[in-house]
Amino acid sequence: MRRQPWNRRHLIERIMQIAMIGSLVIVALCLGAILWTIIVRGLPSLTWQMISQAPKGGFYMGKAGGVLNAILGSLYLATGATALAIVFALPIALYLQTYLATSGWAQLVRLALDVLWGIPSIVYGAFGFTLMIVLGVRASLLAGIIVLALVELPIMTRAMDEVIRRLPRDLAQAALALGSTKLEVALRVIIPQTLPGIVTAVLLAFGRGIGDAAAVLFTAGYTDRIPTSLMRPTASLPLAVFFQLGTPYPEVRERGYASALILTIIVLVVSFGSRWLAARLQRYTVK
Amino acid sequence: MSAHIDVTNLNVFYGKQQALTNVSIAIPRQQITVIMGPSGCGKTTLLKSFNRFLELTDGTTITGAVQVDGQNIYAGDVDVTAVRKRVGLLAQRPTPLPMSIYDNVCYGMQIHQMRTNKADYAVAVQHYLELAGLWEEVKTRLHEPATSLSIGQQQRLCLARGLAVEPEVILGDEPTSALDPISSQHIEKRLLELKNQYTTVIVTHTLRQAKRLADYVIFMYMGEVVEAGVARELFTNPQQERTRQYLEGVF
């Protein structure tokens, strides 16, 4: 009955355990290194001026101003795109699960969404840009929102799809047994039960939307002005980071890191906020 | 005996596998009918043909007719939600909906718009919780999540929820198999109290439960009905050899 540490089975377990811990450590170190870099290099430049002002003349050569234009632009773009994506993603996910289930059509839709998911966002941007030329529309906040919504849609839909798929079958059947229609099951049972997961799906999509630079480059453009209209171009934080890091001036590059830090903080705040919200919504869910 | 549910030549296939073969049976009105038989004999399939639950499984083929009050529920123009409102189901394991105790009972009445104002709903919720023997235990915590109840209480909540849509038939798919003995007794007691108002059909594999509850018994084996009859007669004097063997515990 004595333990034999060099027994083959124990040895394999030990090795696999080390491999698992190793992977975890590597990922954690990468995350830590990224955060460390943007904090160390960005924090000194993260002044009140940075978050409260739009760029002034000569900002990109180190003169006064901030990135309020990009902060507001990114918030508008990502919030608008996420809201728009929800309007389409939730009905698609519900339709896939409640009406199509595992039929061939559902698999085809899932395949299409997975392909869309894999398409680089620059392609969405180029597609949007082509469409805008045909329609004779200029780069604008609205165009950026629409294209970002397209980028977010597959992630959000598939994440919701997976969450709803994991719903116990008994639960939907309990509601059906009372004479519910499928729509009533979706609205009164599936959505409340999966709400925490739906919030996570929305969050995932928001994260991709706010961090995307390529899709908004052509479609939303860039401007030093605070965005005030859906029909005008708008700045965004990823592009602000890109432009500032691309300058030869060290102090401007430092501000680039500060902008990256602002972006990270926004994502963290939204992330924790929605997790807190999801936890509160969990009161009635069936475990 | 007046039949409430009349099954004629029912055949059910899951894909290519036949689960029920030429089942013709009549379920008496306002009595407890128990369907018994060994695992995999088609008991649950027969039960779920009564509320059109079989079609929730992909690849199911159903032929024949199931008439409830003379109306074939598999006819093309039948509203399946209306069928399920008339024929309620108590599932094997309690499945509270993700809402409060109150809303669980209220839900069915709301979707069928069975009351006109809040006060009437509240009265009805109390009434059905009392019928299910749960009111005294939950009256001070109606707005807590249904999942905060014990498993046994949850099953009585499911009974109250089912009764609230005013069905004529209650189906029970081994409704006590997930419960402890005391909770099982609770459910059995309710079913006996209610049997004069509802046609009840229960699937069970415990012979003792069948003997405690049944007025009428259907014995199934390998997807066919072997024997059906009044409980007292069937238990004491089975006509078929296989029924006798089952009652003696041969299989």
Short structural summary:
The complex is a heterodimer of chains A (287) and B (251). Chain A has helices at 8-42, 48-52, 68-100, 104-118, 121-135, 141-165, 169-177, 182-211, 214-219, 237-245, 250-281.
What does this 3D model show about the protein?
The complex is a heterodimer of chains A (287) and B (251). Chain A has helices at residues 8-42, 48-52, 68-100, 104-118, 121-135, 141-165, 169-177, 182-211, 214-219, 237-245, 250-281. Chain A is mainly α. Chain A has two domains: 8-45; 49-284, MetI-like fold, CATH 1.10.3720.10. In chain A, α3 (68-100) crosses α10 (237-245) and α6 (141-165) packs across α8 (182-211). Chain B has 251 residues and is α/β, with parallel strands linked by helices. In chain B, 36% of the residues lie in helices and 27% in strands. In chain B, α7 links the parallel β7 (169-173) and β8. Chain B is globular and about 55 Å long. At the A-B interface, α7 and α8 of A face α2, α3 and α6 of B.
